[in-house]
Automatic annotation (TrEMBL):
Ranges that cross the membrane: 12-32
UniProt keywords, alphabetically: Membrane, Transmembrane, Transmembrane helix
Protein name (Swiss-Prot/TrEMBL): Oxidoreductase molybdopterin-binding domain-containing protein
Superkingdom field: Bacteria
InterPro entries attached to this UniProt entry: OxRdtase_Mopterin-bd_sf (IPR036374)
Amino acid sequence: MVLEAKRIGKENKILVLGVFLLILVIGVFSYLNRNPEDLKEGQILFKAGNTKLSVMTVDDLKKLPSVEKKMTVRTSRGDEEHLYTMTPLRGVLEAIDPKLTEEYEKIIARGIDGYTSGVTMSEVLEPDNVYLAYLDQGRPLPAQKVGAGTESVQVIICRDQFGQRFVKFLVSMEVEN
């Protein structure tokens, strides 16, 4: 009876230790995945390393030259028809600093959901290729959080056949070498 009580006590200690370690791991991952720049949908932070270059809103994008482009995007659910209103990323970068397209080689785009994708500066410089879309069929792109009342921005790369690098809910773009 005494040995059985000791064994149950030892099993409880192991269980408590396991729960503690699980909570610790969750805390560490939460810290690592935090949003230190307080990024919000409807705003795009442009940066180079730790240097903040600009923050643009959907309204700022609407003031830049835009195009309407009808596209068929192949998805896992089948083909989707879109009529995007969008601004060329090249024009956005030149509005921030005309030298960005010359000084950097690639751009890392990140959505509020953590989805991250990259595009080379040579792709950005190709005519009719990389855009920031803010309307589809004349309606604002929806935010990730339903009912948030926030417009969203999506990276569109016209030469991507399946749209794997289309970043929805765009909140940051970082230029890199």
